[in-house]
Specification:
The complex is a heterodimer of chains A (about 150) and B (about 70). Chain A contains four helices and no strands. Chain A is an all-alpha fold and about 150 residues long. Chain A folds into two domains: about 80 residues; about 60 residues, no CATH class. The mean pLDDT of chain A is about 85. With about 70 residues, chain B is mostly helical. Chain B has a single domain, classed as lambda repressor-like DNA-binding domains (434 Repressor (Amino-terminal Domain)). Chain B is built from five helices and two strands, in the order E-H-H-H-H-H-E. In chain B, helix 2 crosses helix 3. The relative contact order of chain B is 0.22. The chains are: A mainly alpha (about 150), B mainly alpha (about 70). At the A-B interface, helix 1 and helix 3 of A face helix 2, helix 3 and helix 4 of B.
């Protein structure tokens, strides 16, 4: 902050944007690696969202490797990112994550009750995941662009 | 909360990105503060004060009328 060179801030802002784009690219690469590995292991039916243990199986080593990538993509990477982003962005992310958790703990009993009443099929893990993930993402977009 | 950030920035002929870089925040954060959509944390407010060599209350106005 003591640096008075003209353009000092612009340079830092550009470097920060570059870092963000790199992080996004690494996330995309992790996703592509997981999808490609499943496809390679199982052919056309290889999708983490539609696969069931009855119809699809992968080797233990591949399972452990992909699980590590999933943990990195969904926990380690985002948490590290929280420490690097500015306070406004961090606020959006933390609030969206809190809302996503709320959707999760509400979705199961609500869906289960509706299924008991015959209005919906029984809750599924993938369905709950999608509600939490999409709900969290939409909440983030709302918080970011609501003004 | 009102503030004079835009004026102070303009006096130095800085873009929002320039100020953002000097404050270690995003350009969106600077824009949100300038337009009054976001109130900065106390540490960031102090940082802004130090950058412009002015006390916080000279930059930010909480519109408290003393009642």
């Amino acid at each position: 902050m003591t640096d008075q060179r003209p353009g000092y801030g612009e340079e830092k802002e550009k470097a920060s944007k570059r870092q963000f784009n790199n992080a996004l690219a690494i996330s995309a690469i992790i996703g592509i690696i997981i999808a490609a590995a499943l496809k390679y292991a199982q052919g056309d039916s290889g999708s983490i969202f539609t696969a069931s243990p009855d119809t699809m199986s992968i080797s233990p080593a591949l399972a452990i490797g992909l699980t590590i990538l999933v943990l990195a993509g969904f926990i380690v990477f985002p948490v590290l990112g929280l420490f690097r982003m500015d306070e406004l962005e961090r606020g959006h992310n933390v609030n969206a994550s809190a809302l996503a958790g709320l959707y999760g703990i509400t979705a199961f009993p609500a869906w289960h009750l509706l299924s008991l009443g015959g209005l919906l099929p029984a809750p599924t893990a993938v369905g709950l995941f999608l509600i939490i993930f999409c709900g969290g993402f939409l909440s983030y977009l709302f918080l970011k662009y609501r003004h | 909360m009102k503030n004079r950030l835009k004026v102070l920035r303009a006096e130095r002929d800085w873009s929002q990105a320039e100020l953002a870089g000097r404050l270690d925040v995003s350009r969106q954060a600077v824009n949100a503060i300038e337009t009054g959509k976001y109130d900065p944390s106390l540490p960031l407010a102090f940082k802004i004060g130090r950058l412009f060599s002015q006390p916080i209350e000279e930059i930010f106005d909480d519109e408290f009328d003393g009642e």
